[in-house]
């Protein structure tokens, strides 16, 4: 294997869940990351790996910085970029007042391209290299996101929203056109370069039973596509969903009955699940996207860690912009930690970094592709500056352990700590402090 690029700094990644396996966290304080083209060739101690360096290769050396796999945001709405931080008393009025009018504009492909480009650059500036992204009901919105992602050679998962009722006419598809347009997008984009498709019924209240059934058929017909939707976010939404589908055992069961629970299905929020729901999540290997800044901002509720961990449900964390208030996965870790504390759970920093990298990859069944520095994985990584602000510099002089260093980064860090972002071995955004 030819080594084509080499980076020397501290290295952090996970081979497993640190909550279950004490050897899962890999840390090399003087580390070397070697690439072969777009892939990881090796990651380890500098003094052990330096013998593999071709003599003519220049090593990029960043003392004091941390090399980490790019963050993975498993639930985000790119069309809501321009309405982040919109005030409303809860989810349903927020959707009516801001979300639907904003999403209307994505029938215009030029607008969709412009927002998609900004959105992807904003993700990269925050160190996020893969996301599971919602478009709007318009197929053009998914085309725009994928086109912009392909131009930057990013691994993105995205889909056109399906919704055929209980929303303004100008945002409705039908059960048939929603399925037909989604299938055309799957054929066009799923597996093209680094792009992956997610079948995206918005949530049960805005889909007829027939639309959800057709989404389930598509999911069955294309088993390696993703599925993404919302469930059990807010109490009013839960009551509404139950009243619309009175035969279902629970809100989650609406999706289950339609064949929408399977590996690669990503369920956002999952605050108001019961024990039977949690068992079905685990049995079907469906995953949770916990969206802390959104849940706090919209007052949706506090996610329950202990029963989720006990049930062994694949878990990830996500921004949910525009319901979420930050694109930063470091800020998302901060709010995740506080939600865990409010429920009596303690979340170490190692677990937070795992959830934002290889834990997310595993929840998406992409752990052999992204999320860690395992040789052969794609070289999406970031250079973190743990002393990017005066306060971080000062606090960093009083660190007693690696766990404490990572914890401080998760609590005080944000986009200012992301010095460089690489996708498929190439720098995609150059920030500051890296010379
Ligand atoms: N439920 C249905 N649509 C949405 C959305 O756009 N954002 C959030 N947070 N919840 C939803
Ligand atoms: Fe959402």
Automatic annotation (TrEMBL):
Q: Which UniProt keywords apply?
A: Hydrolase, Metal-binding, Zinc
The protein's matches in Pfam families, at most eight in alphabetical order, are given as: Amidohydro_1
Q: Where is the signal peptide?
A: none
Q: Which residues cross the membrane?
A: none
Catalysed reactions listed for this entry: guanine + H2O + H(+) = xanthine + NH4(+)
Q: How is the cofactor bound?
A: Binds 1 zinc ion per subunit.
Associated pathway: Purine metabolism; guanine degradation; xanthine from guanine: step 1/1
The enzyme's first-digit EC class, named in words, is hydrolase
InterPro entries, A to Z: Amidohydro-rel (IPR006680), Guanine_deaminase (IPR014311), Metal-dep_hydrolase_composite (IPR011059), Metal_Hydrolase (IPR032466), Metallo-dep_hydrolases (IPR051607)
Give EC number(s), comma-separated: 3.5.4.3
Name the family: Belongs to the metallo-dependent hydrolases superfamily. ATZ/TRZ family.
Q: What does this protein do?
A: Catalyzes the hydrolytic deamination of guanine, producing xanthine and ammonia.
Concerning NCBIfam families, the annotation shows: guan_deamin (TIGR02967), PRK09228.1 (NF006679)
From the Swiss-Prot or TrEMBL record, give the protein name.
Guanine deaminase
Q: What is the organism field in this record? A: Undibacterium griseum
- Taxonomic lineage per UniProt? Bacteria, Pseudomonadati, Pseudomonadota, Betaproteobacteria, Burkholderiales
């Amino acid at each position: 294997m030819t080594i084509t690029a080499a980076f020397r700094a501290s290295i952090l990644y996970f081979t497993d869940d640190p909550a279950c396996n004490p050897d899962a966290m890999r840390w090399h304080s003087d580390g070397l990351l070697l690439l072969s083209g777009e892939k990881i060739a090796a990651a380890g101690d500098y003094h052990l790996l330096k013998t593999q360096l071709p003599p003519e290769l220049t090593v990029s050396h960043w003392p004091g910085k941390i090399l980490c796999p790019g963050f993975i945001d498993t639930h985000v709405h790119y069309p809501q970029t321009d309405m982040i931080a919109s005030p409303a008393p809860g989810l349903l009025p927020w959707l009516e007042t801001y979300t639907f009018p904003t999403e209307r504009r994505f029938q215009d492909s030029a607008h969709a391209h412009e927002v998609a480009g900004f959105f992807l650059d904003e993700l990269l500036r925050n160190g996020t290299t893969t996301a599971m992204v919602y478009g709007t009901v318009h197929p053009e919105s998914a085309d725009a996101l994928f086109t912009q992602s392909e131009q930057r050679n990013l691994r993105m998962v995205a889909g056109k929203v399906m919704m055929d009722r209980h929303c303004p006419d100008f945002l409705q598809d039908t059960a048939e056109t929603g399925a037909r347009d989604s299938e055309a997008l799957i054929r066009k984009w799923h597996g093209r370069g680094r792009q992956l498709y997610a079948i995206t019924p918005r949530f049960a209240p805005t889909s007829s039973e027939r639309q959800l059934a057709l989404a389930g058929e598509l999911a069955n017909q294309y088993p390696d596509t993703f599925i993404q939707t919302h469930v059990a976010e807010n109490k009013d939404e839960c009551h509404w969903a139950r009243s619309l589908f009175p035969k279902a055992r629970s809100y989650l069961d609406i999706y289950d009955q339609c064949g929408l629970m399977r590996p690669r299905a990503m369920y956002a929020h999952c605050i108001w699940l019961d024990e039977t729901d949690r068992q079905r999540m685990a049995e079907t290997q469906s995953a949770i996207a916990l969206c802390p800044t959104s849940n706090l901002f919209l007052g949706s509720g506090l996610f329950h860690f202990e029963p989720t961990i006990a049930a062994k449900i694949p878990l990830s964390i996500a921004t949910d912009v525009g319901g979420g208030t930050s694109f930063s996965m470091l800020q998302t870790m901060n709010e995740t930690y506080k939600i865990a504390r409010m429920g009596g759970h303690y979340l170490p920093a190692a677990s937070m970094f795992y959830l934002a990298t290889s834990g997310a990859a595993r929840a998406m069944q992409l752990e052999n592709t992204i999320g860690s520095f395992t040789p052969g994985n794609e070289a999406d990584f970031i250079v973190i500056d743990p002393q990017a602000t005066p306060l971080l510099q000062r606090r960093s002089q009083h660190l007693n352990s690696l766990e404490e260093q990572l914890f401080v980064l998760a609590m005080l860090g944000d986009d200012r700590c992301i010095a460089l972002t690489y996708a498929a071995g190439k720098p995609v955004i150059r920030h500051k402090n890296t010379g």
